[in-house]
């Protein structure tokens, strides 16, 4: 509409400057005014079309599907306020009752979260993500991290004095041949918030034999291109001052950021390395609604 007014103003200047007779000028102005009125009427009619009960219901359903409950409720309320005695009013009234019930349940859940805090969270041992699923077999503290076993031998790393490993034994199944893997994180509860201590590193649990461990040939048991499920042993060394008698949360972030990496002169040649995980340094309870999953709590009684 502003463009139309500007157009009239510009045409008026042009016509005046060109010496157009007043009679013709008045006729053009009248036609422009009539066009302006028609455009205003069309805009009003288009707005009415957009706000028919049918269109409002379509928009409300889209808002509801996207969890935009208040916007959906406003659309239904618009039908009730502007129309009487039609079927769509009854539909709108029923949908508003349903939306109000959902909103009330969410409010109660939020109040419960605030009251209980991290106590409300329940650990899980099975996690499904896009293309992969994880089964958590065991999570514990230990002095030695054992991995890369073959035949009757294995490799291990011992924690330094005053430290322990946070250890995890998990199995990962994949629908695709070369998935990235999610980070397993360690947080400490401090003043009602979880503070990040570190990220566990992935190691293969075992190899078929010494030759496959050296990389002389492919171990199909450690390749998702050939095996649906691969077992891993994970570990992270931390100081006892962060672990002993502290409330520790083991958490998974729902992002696949450990990638399969090849190093020719490394034994073994294949491993998974961290790339762009970017976990939050501080977590709140609401972070577990979408992006984070609780796997285990140590010293839960101290919460």
What does this structure look like?
- The chain has 303 residues and is α+β, with helices and mostly antiparallel strands.
- The protein has two domains: 2-115, no CATH class; 121-302, no CATH class.
- It has seven helices and 14 strands.
- It has helices at residues 2-17, 22-50, 53-65, 69-82, 87-116, 210-214, 240-243; strands at residues 126-128, 132-142, 144-150, 153-158, 163-174, 184-190, 193-199, 201-204, 229-239, 248-253, 258-262, 270-274, 282-283, 292-298.
- The strands form four sheets. It has a five-stranded antiparallel beta sheet with strand order 1-2-5-9-8. Strands 13-7-6-10-14 form a five-stranded antiparallel beta sheet, with no helix packed on it. A two-stranded antiparallel ribbon has the order 3-4.
- A hairpin with a 2-residue loop joins strand 6 and strand 7 (193-199).
- The longest helix is centred in the middle third of the chain and has 30 residues, at 87-116.
- The model has no long low-confidence stretch (mean pLDDT 87).
């Amino acid at each position: 509409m502003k463009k139309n007014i500007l157009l009239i103003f510009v045409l008026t200047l042009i016509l005046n400057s060109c010496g157009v007779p007043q009679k013709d000028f008045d006729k053009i102005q009248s036609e422009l005014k009539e066009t302006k009125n028609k455009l205003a009427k069309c805009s009003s009619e288009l707005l009415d079309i957009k706000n028919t009960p049918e269109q409002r219901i379509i928009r409300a359903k889209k808002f509801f599907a996207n969890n935009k409950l208040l916007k959906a409720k406003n659309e239904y309320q618009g039908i009730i306020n502007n129309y009487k005695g039609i079927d769509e009013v009854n539909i709108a009234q029923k949908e508003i009752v349903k939306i109000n019930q959902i909103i009330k349940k969410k409010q109660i859940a939020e109040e419960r979260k605030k009251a209980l805090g991290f106590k409300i969270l329940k650990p899980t041992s099975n996690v499904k993500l896009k293309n992969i699923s994880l089964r958590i077999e065991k999570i514990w503290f230990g002095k030695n991290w054992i991995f890369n076993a073959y035949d009757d031998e294995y490799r291990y790393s011992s924690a330094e004095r005053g430290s322990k490993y946070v250890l995890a034994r998990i199995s990962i199944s994949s629908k695709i041949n070369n998935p990235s893997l999610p980070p397993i994180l360690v947080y400490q509860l401090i003043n009602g918030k979880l503070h990040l201590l570190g990220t566990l590193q992935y190691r293969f649990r075992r190899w078929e034999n010494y030759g496959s461990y050296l990389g002389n040939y492919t171990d199909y048991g450690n390749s998702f291109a050939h095996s649906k499920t691969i077992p891993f042993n994970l570990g992270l060394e931390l100081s006892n001052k962060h672990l002993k008698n502290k409330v520790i949360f083991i958490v998974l972030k729902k992002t696949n950021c450990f990638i399969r990496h090849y190093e020719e002169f490394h034994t073994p040649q294949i491993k998974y390395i961290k790339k762009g995980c970017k976990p939050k340094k501080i977590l709140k309870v609401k972070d577990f609604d979408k992006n984070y999953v609780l796997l285990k709590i140590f010293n839960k009684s101290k919460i």
